[in-house]
Every structure is written in C-alpha cells, then in structure tokens.
Design goal:
alpha+beta; 2 domains; 8 strands; about 25% strand; globular
Length: about 170
C-alpha cells in the first residue's frame, strides 16, 4: 500500500488530526477514507469556483456516481480523512524542517540470516533523520523503521505534535 491506513489517522488526538487537515491541500488523485462508508476513495475533481474553499468530489465506483465531500468536521467528527502518501508526508514535514536525510541499511543481526536465506525481503531498516539546519551534527528527529512510509508517518506525527505544542503557547 502506498498510503497510510485510516486507523493510523483516526487514532490520533483530534487536535493533531486538525493540524493535518488544515495543512492538507486537496488535489485530484489524493486518497481519502470515508468514515461513514468505511471505504477508501480517490479524489476525482476539485472545483474552487462555487465556494471560496472549494468543492471536492470522489468517485464511488459501487454507486457509479461522483460524491461531494468536505474537509470540515461534521458535528466535531471528520467524515472524510486524508490517507497520506509519501510525498505528502515529506511536504508536511518540510513545513517545519527543511533538511531530511534518508538511508537504508541491513542491521548486523540480520546479515547472517540474509546470507542463509538469500532473501532481502524485510531485512532493510530505513533511517530517517530530520534537521533544522545542515550545520547540526545530531538530528532533531530520528526514526528507524523497516517500512519507509511508516518511518515518514512517525516523523510527521512528531512534527504535528510539535506544531500543536507551539500553538498552545
């Protein structure tokens, strides 16, 4: 899967969800999750001419129809949420941190296992480091994960929490 799953977004505190939703600029091709229908959809059309904020549509293949949706919460709950892809997570992180370092490696304990099995599936670790400036020797945020998308999701959540703390001050 090339985007986060709905449960990851929905388990976040409402305040952190709002930070992501407020940042999100909906584009055609984005993947959303309809909480009411318990399904993923692709944004099919974005019209900004009728209401200043924009009208957003997804195509429901089961109903063979375009469906209107809103970024605004309905009675305090979001009914459509973004399922972010890697490029969107990077874009969000870069709103606060301009320098991102990424590398992958095989942990030592997995090297001998790899040689025996001749399989490289799931042996690599992704190391994502985030810096405010390139003169730093230590990153502001560092995450290790076997899945690159999940590593960036972890970093994005940390950044959203930092933004939330800044907004509280």
């Amino acid at each position: 899967m090339n985007y986060i799953i709905a449960e990851q977004f929905l388990e976040l505190p409402r305040k952190i969800q709002k930070i992501f939703i407020d940042w999100w600029e909906i584009e055609e091709g984005d993947t959303i999750y309809s909480v009411d229908e318990d399904k993923d959809f692709t944004v099919a059309r974005v019209d900004e001419e009728f209401r200043g904020e924009g009208d957003y549509w997804y195509y429901d293949y089961d109903a063979d129809d375009l469906m209107l949706f809103s970024k605004s919460p309905d009675e305090g709950e979001y009914t459509e949420i973004p399922l972010f892809k890697l490029d969107q997570l990077i874009g969000f992180i870069k709103t606060k941190y301009k320098h991102i370092g990424v590398n992958n490696f095989i942990p030592f304990e997995k090297i001998t296992k790899t040689i025996r099995t001749a399989s490289d599936k799931g042996i690599y670790e992704w190391n994502v480091k985030i810096f405010k400036n390139m003169m730093q020797s230590e990153p502001d945020i560092e995450v290790l994960n076997e899945d690159l998308l999940q590593a960036f999701w972890e970093v994005a959540v940390i950044v959203a929490e930092e933004i939330g703390e800044m907004n509280d001050d």
